[in-house]
Amino acid sequence: MATIKLRVRRYLIDLFVAESARTHGAYRLLVLDGHSSHATPEFDQFCTENKIITLCMPAHTSHLLQPLDVGCFSPLKRAYGHEIQKLARQGVYHIDKIDFLTAYTRIRPAVFTQQNIQAGFQATGLIPPCPDRVLSSLTVVRTPSPPATTADNHVAWTAETPRTVAQLQQQVRYLQERLRRKSKSSTSVAVRQLAKSAQLAMQSATILAEENKKLRVASQRQQRKRDQRRQYIARGGALQAQQGLQLAAEAERGVAEVEQAQTTQGRQRAPPTFVELLCKTLR
């Protein structure tokens, strides 16, 4: 906290006071985000002595009012998330400093551009001045209507990502209701969470399909070994070392053929069973 307060004081003295001294008028306006490092007696005393009027933004509004949050940091967050997802698909689940810096240096040039910075000031209604750009994104608070008699007429919603089919359906009903009312702020949040839920479902399905494939191959390999033992017991013969090695190699080739057939053909044709492969081998 002491380091943060020191940086705030340096910003006031070296940047804000020095740069704003050329402006006309005795007082200057400093817009703050309400961080706790600003709410100190020393900070207030310094602003009073230098005729600085402080104005704190409402809580949870930086994503609407701060130009860099809108134009740069929000795209940076999305781009960084995509980079981490790529690492996760490669089996990297622990992100250390090297991984973070590698991902950050890769995405930073594409995010902190002149176009994005200027778009942030335009989206927040600062340049050119346009308050409606922010006001139109706010949810209008209306007098609540009387409670509905049926559950279908009232759709409850909480700001959480759906995890079940029932929650997903409830989210969809809420979206439909909000779209009819044209409330952009809450609707955009719900749309993002709905997309995230669908993405989680697709990722889970992909992982389960891959695990299921590996389990089928392992199960078929064990079944093939059991069938080989039953064949030699039924024939009453003794299995020599060379024959055992040869059959083991042929069994592995049979499993490889099954894996290749599942990958290339999919559902077009069912792969041969291990019993069929054994019969073919022992002929």
Automatic annotation (TrEMBL):
* Keyword set, alphabetical order: Coiled coil, Hydrolase
What's this protein's name? Answer: Plasma membrane calcium-transporting atpase 2
A Pfam family matched in the record: DDE_1
Where does the record place a coiled coil? Answer: 165-228
Q: Name one GO molecular function term.
A: DNA binding
Q: What is its EC number?
A: 3.6.1.15, 3.6.1.3, 3.6.3.8
The residue ranges of the DDE-1 domain are: 9-120
The taxonomic lineage of its organism, from the top, reads: Eukaryota, Fungi, Dikarya, Ascomycota, Pezizomycotina
